[in-house]
Amino acid sequence: MPARQAAALIGDGMVIGASGFTRSGDSKAVLAALAEKAEHDHTRITLMTGASLGHGTDGALATAGAVHTRLPFQSDPVMRTIINEGKLSYIDENLSETAAHIRNGFLPPIDIAIIEAAAIEADGSIVPTTSLGNSAIFVQQAGQVIIEINQAVPVGIRGIHDVFLPEDPTGRAILPITEVWQRIGQQVIACDPSKIAAIVFTNQKDSPAETAAGNAVAEAIAGHLLHFFEQEIAAGRLTRSLRPMQAGIGKIADAVLSGLAGGDFEHLTIYSEVLQDSTFKLIESGKMDFASGSSMTLSEACYQRVFADFERYRHKILLRPQDITNAAEIIQRLGIIAINTALECDIYGNVNSSHISGSHIVNGIGGSADFAQNSYLSIFVTESVTKGCKISRIVPMVTHVDHSEHDVDVIVTEQGLADLRGLAPRQKAEAILRNCVHPDYYQELSDYFLRACRRGGHTPHLLEEAFQLHANLAATGSMKARILQSI
């Protein structure tokens, strides 16, 4: 049926679970039709996905007032504004947790699942497209299922998915993944045909990812991190194969992985959430043996290249549900090297990855905590300054804590790398100040730290000044006004 007819099945107050993870494998038609419908009949829903959607869908839904509550992750600038205005409830949670929260009844029951597919099999099973995310749990738990068959995705994509639904937590068996390439599930999402309420055909590619090509800051950060890996190899803590890598979505993390293609590395593997351009660059270079993720989020050029010669890659990649890619048990067992992006870091190593000035959500925590808390090495990368040097990414105290210093091993900016392992708080501050701070802010931050140390404490702070940089920003549009000099 047409998308508008399928969208008419969605009533006011319903809970919708939609496929999609970092702009991949998302609803291209039905959610867009729902936004148009809501403008006329004021339908409002709770919308759950895997992660962010593409094609401006979240923004269109938010503008139409179609979403009452959104979870667990979004990255649309229009929806972000409406969330920060307090007009839309946003539940920002770790991406590993949503499926369990649904299964355990912590979240309301799902009325309809909207799932993008490459095909439907005779028994109703769904062949996913470029992401799995939370699609399997949505299909299992929903009362009805709307399937969007995307003819832009070749049916031959079947086989790259490993669909596994864990048992309830009580008495749960181990998740038997001991190698990145191990399969533990099925190639399709099981679906009772009687639940399929509508089939909608589309023909539209995923929204393309942005790349880091020509980004000098990202390349400098990558250079520092690659040098660090070389030092770890020399110390005998890593081999030329490193350990399975995880990299959060974004230009900087993608640049770090891309840099591995030019280094003296071999038999690399990825166990991550998102397979980006760098993944396929590493496969093409012969450096990467296998990559496991929950989605493929690619630039237009990389998307075209991969699907033009898909057989070259199909036996080197797997897509899994996000509660498997982000499972603490597997991350710990595999000894993951996790690389995620910070919005700001403080001088003691605490990380804010979600809120501007403590109040305004940007995107959300995503899966960064899942990996930071359980990885072999937890690395956070960020530029040292932004907005023409008006904002320092290194501050005395972060205004929102997503990752405490206890889960942060390494911080990297284009200025340098601070290895925080085995350091006490004051030593961490010295390492971060020495290696990561932009010269324009070094004196102010160093002065703050020295005066805080004179006052004393295990983690010295001047509480009356801790957020002075942020106060300067709010008052003048720049953090550069001098910190008040008080003793």
TrEMBL record:
Does the record carry Hydrolase as a key word? yes
Q: Note whether Repeat occurs among the keywords.
A: no
Report domain Acetyl-CoA hydrolase/transferase C-terminal positions: 307-448
GO terms (molecular function) for this protein are: hydrolase activity
Keywords from the named record: Hydrolase
**What Pfam families does its record include?**
AcetylCoA_hyd_C, AcetylCoA_hydro
Q: Report the InterPro entries cross-referenced here.
A: AcetylCoA_hyd_C, AcetylCoA_hyd_C_sf, ActCoA_hydro, ActCoA_hydro_N, NagB/RpiA_transferase-like, Succinate_CoA_transferase
Instruction: List residues of the Acetyl-CoA hydrolase/transferase N-terminal domain.
Output: 4-155
- In terms of superkingdom, the source organism counts as Bacteria
Similarity field = Belongs to the acetyl-CoA hydrolase/transferase family.
Note the NCBIfam families from the entry: YgfH_subfam
Q: What is the name of the protein in this document? A: Acetyl-CoA hydrolase
Output the lineage of the source organism: Bacteria, Pseudomonadati, Bacteroidota, Cytophagia, Cytophagales
